[in-house]
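Protein in question quoted for reference:
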Amino acid sequence: MTLLATAVPTADLNTALRALPIAVDGHTMTPDSLLRYLRIKVHHLIRDHDWDSIRVVGRYDRQAMISAHEKPGKLFNFERPTAQVHGRDLVVKAFPGGDYVHHYALIIATYLSMTGKAADIVSHELPDAAASRAAVWQLDLDLDGDLVIVGWGLGHLAPAGGTWIPGPGYAWQRTHLHGHAVVYLGFLHSIWGDVAGRVVTRLAELGARDVVYVGKVGALNPEIEPNTLLATGNTSLVGDTPVTWHDFFGDVATTQPGVHTGIHVTSPSILLENRDWLAEHTGHAFVDPEIGPMGDAARHAGIGFGYLHVISNNLARHYPADLSNERHRDVIARRTVLIGRIRDIIATRLATQPI
């Protein structure tokens, strides 16, 4: 192995937490689908080499070795955690959010276990709140009561031919829609879980009046086929506590055809969504890591928040489309249609109600 190696850092070893692989047989994804999902997530150095230890830390470092499996051809959310070699030890550097660092450590440990390798070498070091806040506070926009649309599918939502203005780890553009100032904001890295909540807090401080999050959720209702419906709502279960926010969409989204509504559940990692977890949340509608923290942050900041998501997978029944095959042509085509519906619903909301 001819890789650049440096001395292994020791300052933070005492704060590292062991990351244990999940019980694959009890997960809501089939073993085959789960392994495909993991393979496209892990850094190529983990797939291609054996290590004495792997430690996941919360440090955004694009100068470290970039994964060969980063998603090509995407405007946003294509960056994956990077890696730095220290002899026989590997440090994996993820964007500093507690949920994301934990999630990525679970990905690595479970992948190693499923491929017959030792998984007890994986640990993770949760970033402190100051480091997480400082990373998000790199976001700096001049907002004045704007609606900020953040998340996935922005290349289809923003005006064709618009200019994306780059910032550190993000890009944005402003337009006017039905007389309202609208800012589209995309991140190059993942804003997973608690990071997404900090993004909303930061946007409120910068002057946003409302934030809309566009993304993907998993359905908990077995009757919903992936990539056929949209999801919205104004309440998420965060831990054991329901959190409700002022919904930007009001009743505009819920009255549109093809839009499903219900109580959302916040989960910090897809790896933790096993059949026991599913049984505990019977009667809820959707799951993802971001909606709850974002809604809670908006509620505390006194601004509006709304989400309008593609239902991308189903935890309660196995369908051909799941999280392991999102790049298939049919999946992309279906989601492109749904993104068009999201664009139309946002425009309807702006045309019919003041903000």
About this structure: The chain has two domains: 13-128, 137-352. The mean pLDDT is 94. DSSP finds nine helices and 19 strands in the chain.
